[in-house]
Amino acid sequence: MRVSPLVESLRGKLIVSVQAYPGEPLRHPETMAQMARACELGGAAAIRCQGLADIAAIKGCVEVPVIGLWKEGHEGVYITPTLRHALACASAGADVVALDATDRARPDGRTFEETVVDFRSSTDALLMADCMTIEDIRRGVSAGCDVVSTTLSHNKAAIDTTLDDGPDLAILRAAASEFPDFPIVCEGHVHTPVDARLAIDARAWAVVAGTGITHPTSITSWFKAAIEG
After folding, report:
1. Half-sphere exposure of 82 (CA within 13 A, CB side)
2. Domain ranges of the chain
3. H or E element: which one contains 126?
4. Which residues, 6 or more positions from 103, have their beta carbon under 8 angstroms from its beta carbon?
5. What DSSP state is assigned to residue 4?
6. What's the CA angle centered on 43, arms 161 and 212, to 5 degrees?
7. Distance between CA 105 and CA 172 in Å, rounded?
8. Residues with Cβ within 8 Å of residue 3, at least 6 apart in sequence
9. pTM for this one?
10. Which residues of 130-168 are buried (b: 16+ CB within 10 A; e: fewer)?
């Protein structure tokens, strides 16, 4: 198996997810780009971001790779749900495009595997498979994705988490044992430096942290809860 130089550069590194939810005061491309640049200065090896405007703004502001996705909807396949979404992310400047790797029905009728094949024939951007189960990880590896991640393994949005929630180390360990040489990224509920270290110790290729770094509303709520008991 050949690992791309870009993915190789992420081995043992931190990726920061820079996203704001609809209706929040930070939801603006320029703000997200500034946040991404601040994270780059702190040592982020790549930035993961959502939406075409944010991808373009962040790509123009940082030197590290950009992992782009396009969320549409809130249920079923909503992370880069169609080939059109994936190609648009690449056109906006994403070096890596993340898409849902589950076997659930997609709005354009394509399977995950068909989406991967058609994407490959249209662009040189890399692919990250966002997975919910070990079967999804196997699907992403078999389909020829460049990297897989545990993004969906908790099956709930990051904003719905608490500080006590942690990364899904069980699926990470299982995947690393089955695919010891494949880039498997830990994403989801990585809220503290300890969480990040545990993921690396569980043989994650790289670790994505988002809410615990770039979502001040959640971070504030954790402090408030601790103070008020």
Report:
1. 8
2. 5-228
3. strand 126-130
4. 111, 112, 135, 136, 139
5. P
6. 10
7. 25
8. 146, 183
9. 0.95
10. bbbbbebbbbbbebebbbbbbbbbbeeebeebebebbbb
d(CA 25, CA 163): 22
Cβ atoms of 13 and 209 within 8 Å: the answer is: no
Fold of 5-228: TIM Barrel (3.20.20)
147 beta partners: 128
Task: DSSP letter for 189, please.
Answer: S
User: 160-218, pLDDT tens digit by residue?
Assistant: 566 668 899 999 999 999 999 999 999 999 999 999 999 999 999 999 999 999 999 99
Tokens describing residue 171: 């699926």
Length of the chain: 229
